[in-house]
Amino acid sequence: MGEIRTEEMLMNIGPQHPSTHGVLRVVVKVDGEIIKEADPVVGYLHRGTEKLAEDLQYTQIIPYTDRMDYLSSMVNNHAIVNAVERAMDLEVPERAEYLRIIVVELNRVMSHLVFLGTYLLDLGAMTPFLYAFADREQVVDFFNRLCGARLTYNYMRVGGVKWDTPDGWLDDVKKFVPYMRSQMGMFHELVTGNEIFLERVKGIGKFDAETALNYAMSGINLRSTGFNWDLRKNKPYSIYDRFDFNVIVGENGDCFDRYMCHMNEIMESLKIVEQALEQIPEGPVMGKVPKILRVPAGEYYSAIEGTRGELGVYIVSEGKDKPYRLKFRRPSFINLQLLPQQLKGQSMANLIAILGAVDIVLGEVDA
Amino acid sequence: MSEETKAPETKAPEATKAPEAEAAPEPVDPRIEQATERLEFLRGKVVAKFGEDVLEAAELKQFQPTITIKNQHWVEVVEFFKTEATLGFVYPELMAGTDYKDYIEVYVLLHSFTLDYDVSLKTRTPRENASIPSITPLFAGFNWEEREIFDLLGVNFPGHPDMRRIMLEDHWVGHPLRKDYVVEN
Amino acid sequence: MEVNNNANQQPAYMEFEGFTQEESQELSKAGVLIGTLEQIKGWARSNSLWPLTFATACCGIEMMGTGAAHYDLDRFGIIFRASPRHADCIIIAGTITKKMAPILKRLYDQMPEPKWVVAMGSCATAGGPYVRAYSVVKGADQVIPVDVYIPGCPPSPPALIYGLNKLQEKIRLEAKGKKVR
């Protein structure tokens, strides 16, 4: 049989595509089924948050951070309030710190559930999506009771949190933790051992720790290569040093490891929630802060471990109530840069598997 | 040197107000002390290698050692920070550009796993024909960040492998994050 | 095909245009429906709306949540499609930027007639919190005609379901020749 002659073809995936998780566009050059070149095009959701923030007071910026990484709004809230508090050297009441940890970790669980559902939906499995969203809905209900919103919470304030918990909220969360644990067992039974799933993700999209570091990757993308780097441990902020939890690391840095890291991080987050529920003291939820927040003139950078990696806020202040310049270090944006290298030489079907495992949120990529 | 007025040393009394700073009002905040030590160490390293004249300033921003490097020496100094074995700032964390009305500043935050702390490096460029040599060949992670700064602040990065707009369309006029950009409605 | 609008006391029969009450009763008893072809088409269309998933931002997650098990949009015959060629309606869930606007227009043009547009959330309605941003289109209706606006940032799933029910109502009313604006 003679050699089959194929021509290179330019294919356009997105920005309207169910598996790009929003409005990412990938222009790929394929030779038959094999990707020769890939060029991600971003910016279809660029809303100019950083420019808008220059015109807003610090409290007014919090709702905009909700809409950046909209799968983990609480984490984003935490990033900005943490940055302002560090810059102003403010003290946060104990109870508020604990409430923050609880909601942030619950949010991490919720976000990873969305990853689980949508990733498997991309790979062709419908059922896990329905189960994951049903469980996610419970966490959404918790947040809805806490702050009256389902997705964009705007719950945290500089110096504390906006509201204390409603009656019975903490008890319900306490009941949710073991339930979620048992659900994870169900997910592992449903998905992790599945031969088709393993075939599609094992050994796909591999990269090593050195590449990941050079590409400034963080979060699960970095940890899946076996590199132990979690800001909750390595640059402790808030009260994370009081909890006993493990940093989940992978081994090979392939899509399967990233999937497993997500699954295991849910368990670790539940562990933190459980400990925080035990330790949470009574008391005020809002510290003493000036009515108008003025960050002293200077430059500040502080980062937290977001759901997708290092979520940092860089503030340049002139001592006014509005920042002179506000820059978000957006983990999704940075983690996506490796995509062309990851895709080179892979088949088209693997594009979805690789892209899904990077776990991007376009609101954060484009800001 | 409007920068000098922003020096964080003026905030030292503020820090002592916070209850967590256990030191009495008189002695310096231990965090400042530690940061000064680090700054002196890093500054010494740079001066020993390149001499005084690559530096524009070396100061503390809150607790962060910050070294401002002259534009034309930018790449070699950053490379030194990355490759020098005793420093080992191999992990690029953040790149940000700021328009300061009379110049544009690019800020880079690098982390070292050997020293276990961060350093901030900065360089400046005039607003007209703004240009800073690219450090993407050193840190692939700054590829898109440099493109974003090019897009939103209009700083050119010679040596970048793929310099084009990233967020806005190619035909967009102006650079939105510049302070004199007028948002039309 | 005139269904009595008074929901409280539903008649046991349907009142058809151009027939007396007795005749309508008789027809209903025999299981005969009489209507114009347009009305029957409207009835069919409204009960099998296939929206195009056009999730650009946060609202998309709520849209996915609405489609998932808890709220279950499928019970209204609303099933999400990924291709504009399959779709009857487009739910614009999220902010439309100036870079995205031409693509939205093209997707709309690719949809077969008849087609409807739902603007979900305040961004798609009028720019929302990003109305002052340099890169955001102030409402999807600057690009394509919109039939139903759903306020909220983001609208909760019940709000989305309500909005889609309103769209179904509109389709049925339009089929009767009424102008709905």
Automatic annotation (TrEMBL), chain B:
<dbReference type="Pfam" id="PF00329">
    <property type="entry name" value="Complex1_30kDa"/>
</dbReference>
<dbReference type="InterPro" id="IPR037232">
    <property type="entry name" value="NADH_quin_OxRdtase_su_C/D-like"/>
</dbReference>
<keyword id="KW-0520">NAD</keyword>
<dbReference type="InterPro" id="IPR001268">
    <property type="entry name" value="NADH_UbQ_OxRdtase_30kDa_su"/>
</dbReference>
<feature type="region of interest" description="Disordered">
    <location>
        <begin position="1"/>
        <end position="30"/>
    </location>
</feature>
<protein>
    <recommendedName>
        <fullName>NADH-quinone oxidoreductase</fullName>
        <ecNumber>7.1.1.-</ecNumber>
    </recommendedName>
</protein>
<dbReference type="GO" id="GO:0008137">
    <property type="term" value="F:NADH dehydrogenase (ubiquinone) activity"/>
</dbReference>
<keyword id="KW-0813">Transport</keyword>
<feature type="domain" description="NADH:ubiquinone oxidoreductase 30kDa subunit">
    <location>
        <begin position="67"/>
        <end position="184"/>
    </location>
</feature>
<dbReference type="InterPro" id="IPR020396">
    <property type="entry name" value="NADH_UbQ_OxRdtase_CS"/>
</dbReference>
<keyword id="KW-1278">Translocase</keyword>
<dbReference type="GO" id="GO:0016651">
    <property type="term" value="F:oxidoreductase activity, acting on NAD(P)H"/>
</dbReference>
<dbReference type="GO" id="GO:0048038">
    <property type="term" value="F:quinone binding"/>
</dbReference>
<feature type="compositionally biased region" description="Basic and acidic residues">
    <location>
        <begin position="1"/>
        <end position="20"/>
    </location>
</feature>
<comment type="function">
    <text>NDH-1 shuttles electrons from NADH, via FMN and iron-sulfur (Fe-S) centers, to quinones in the respiratory chain.</text>
</comment>
<comment type="similarity">
    <text>Belongs to the complex I 30 kDa subunit family.</text>
</comment>
<keyword id="KW-0874">Quinone</keyword>
